[in-house]
Amino acid sequence: MTEIIVIIMSIILVDNVVLSQFLGICPFLGVSKKMDSAVGMGVAVTFVMVLATAATWPVQKYLLDAYDIGYLQTVVFILIIAALVQLVEMTLKRYMPPLYSALGVYLPLITTNCAVLGITITNIDDGLNYVQSLFNAFGAGVGFLLAMLLFAGMRGKLENCKMVPEPFQGVPITLITASILSLSFMGFSGVVEGLFA
């Protein structure tokens, strides 16, 4: 159980998929203007990450590795992720139309969200077993959600701030804010391992 907690805490705080690994930057910057959209995207990405890991890990171990066709990993994983995103998109459109409208073009972009693909491949490359991979994917999704929430809150404050110099307004202050948020997560390095040592 301790190992699972370390996996989850380290992927959320130390190896955050957005702020440390710099994966999934497009939805991170694009959907983080409003808190509702940020939460919706974070939950959708978490859901897709866990489902994608649940589907891709067995495919890798029992199909690609078994028949020595591991070179097809990226193509097969993208196809699986695309199918899962279509499932999520149809579900949101049917049961949560406001969230579906708020996410807009970014919902289909989960298909090509490198964070989802990156976690599925990292789980295999790190030699995690099936259960560890699922918890790692869940932790990565929670880390993505946490980053989205923090960044949406910061952007909300910046939009109402009159102190930002004119040359820094818009994209420059957004990128500066993202870099400062990323730096703040570097402070967690070594803490997670030290908690359970």
Summed up:
This protein is an all-alpha fold and 197 residues long.
| Overall 3D form | globular
Low-confidence stretches: none
> The biggest beta sheet, please?
none
Radius of gyration: 18 Å
- Note the total helix count: 9
Oligomeric category: single chain
Distance between the termini: 14 Å
List the helices and strands and how they pair.
Elements: H1 2-14, H2 25-30, H3 35-64, H4 73-95, H5 97-103, H6 114-125, H7 130-159, H8 171-186, H9 191-195
Features of the shown structure:
mainly alpha
What features would you describe in this structure?
It is a single chain. The chain is mostly helical and 197 residues long. It has one domain (10-187). Helices cover 72% and strands 0% of the residues. It has nine helices and no strands. α3 packs antiparallel against α7 (130-159). The model has no long low-confidence stretch (mean pLDDT 88).
